[in-house]
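User: Fold this; tokens only.

Assistant: Input:
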Amino acid sequence: MVTSRPLHYGGLHQLISISFYLVFGVIVLSLVISKREIERRRLLSKRMRAQGIDALYLASSANVAYVTNFFIPTERPVAAILLEGGETVMFVPRLEVEHVERYAYVDRVEYYLEYPDERRPMYVFLDLMRRPRLEGRTVGFDFTSST
């Protein structure tokens, strides 16, 4: 049995919906950011152009969720890449492709095979970054600090 109860917080009800689902006796939390709110990528693209940034690499789970509406708790590499013109690409383990295709607000999904594979994920990612001809271009990135 699956039940859902959306909760809305004040004026945010048009932006964020939080639902709790009961699936086989387990409570599952679902956070959905409206497509309208995700349009903030357009503003981000404008800021990128103004600062001379050709692409933006996001690896922080909070930033990835903010831009794509997709969050996955994993130790594996996951990233969102915003390209010039607003295209958003998600880079995930193969295991997550169907989830990203279903739930994330992205234009394209790229993946790497699980460990152990002949190629490490970062080499696959490097090939991905070369495809839109980003070599020699300016790529912005986020970072988190543990200190």
